[in-house]
Prior knowledge:
0% helix; 60% strand
Amino acid sequence: MIEGRIDERGVPVIEIRLTGRTWTATIDTGFNGYLELPEDLRHAVAPQFIGRAESLLAAGHVVTEDQYVVRFPFEGEVRRVRATFAPGDGILIGTGLLMAYRLTIDFPERHVWLERD
């Protein structure tokens, strides 16, 4: 099981250890992809370019992004998943990565759980 919290902005987050540092990863249930990673992690996840894809964002904005398959450590194993890269220092976890999990978000208690189904 992975445990997380609701941060000061009211956002569900978990922490991921990678490249000798702890990264904050936002669980974004409105994002049906797998991962959006900061550019600083590009070298650490062995990206393999697989093509370009359009994504629909809030307010109907469409963006075209490079898509990669990356090696991403998650819950004690390294997984090969699709990812994009963006500026910044946060990780976005989409529902694609969470399909085998039960996600519980308890806003009053400010707690998040991910359990493998």
